[in-house]
Every structure is written in C-alpha cells, then in structure tokens.
From TrEMBL:
<dbReference type="GO" id="GO:0004414">
    <property type="term" value="F:homoserine O-acetyltransferase activity"/>
</dbReference>
<dbReference type="InterPro" id="IPR029058">
    <property type="entry name" value="AB_hydrolase_fold"/>
</dbReference>
<dbReference type="GO" id="GO:0009092">
    <property type="term" value="P:homoserine metabolic process"/>
</dbReference>
<protein>
    <submittedName>
        <fullName>Homoserine O-acetyltransferase</fullName>
    </submittedName>
</protein>
<dbReference type="GO" id="GO:0009086">
    <property type="term" value="P:methionine biosynthetic process"/>
</dbReference>
<keyword id="KW-0808">Transferase</keyword>
<dbReference type="InterPro" id="IPR008220">
    <property type="entry name" value="HAT_MetX-like"/>
</dbReference>
Length: 97
C-alpha cells in the first residue's frame, strides 16, 4: 500500500486513492489466510477458458489468478488503506501471552 504512487504518505483522496496497493495487499492477505492444501484442492493448476484468458502474455492465465483479482477489486474500496495498515500491524503485534 505504501509503495503505491497514490499513497502520498497516507494523505490520499477519492481522486488519488492507492487502489493498486490495496488490491495487492488484499491478494497477499487472502493467500496467507488459506492453506496451500485448500488452494490446491480448490484451484490446482486449472487454466482459464480461452474466452476468459487475457490476450496479454502476462495477463491472467489461471483460475486462481482470476479469483484473487476479482476478490481484490471487490474489496478495494471497503477498507480505508490507513485502517488496513493499522489492523495488519496490530495483528502482527498481538501476543495473547
């Protein structure tokens, strides 16, 4: 999020919102919330249908990529980026002991 060009030290607005940083953060979060076994069972290495796949050789190719991108796009405006960073940091620092 902080590497997004629109981050602006946390002083962003609706016209200059760190959307790409939020999408990437959400994808990384979703990946870590689930186990490798779950990902493999759900998607394996199944490719997108030819109608769904991008013509771009570096575009979406696998179903899991499409799932993560769709999840990230739906999420991006539900959380404020500063809030997301602070929640993430608080989970890192939390120690029940």
């Amino acid at each position: 999020i902080r590497l997004d060009p629109h981050w602006n030290g946390g002083h962003y607005d609706d016209t200059h919102y760190p959307e790409s940083g939020m999408r990437m953060a959400r994808k990384l979060g979703v990946i870590t919330y689930r186990s490798a076994l779950e990902w493999d069972g759900r998607f394996g290495r199944v490719r997108l249908d030819s109608e769904q796949a991008a013509d771009d050789p570096f575009g979406l190719e696998f179903q899991v990529e499409s799932y993560l991108e769709g999840h990230a796009r739906r999420f991006v405006r539900f959380f404020d980026p500063n809030c997301y960073l602070y929640l993430s940091r608080s989970m890192d620092w939390f120690d029940l002991a």
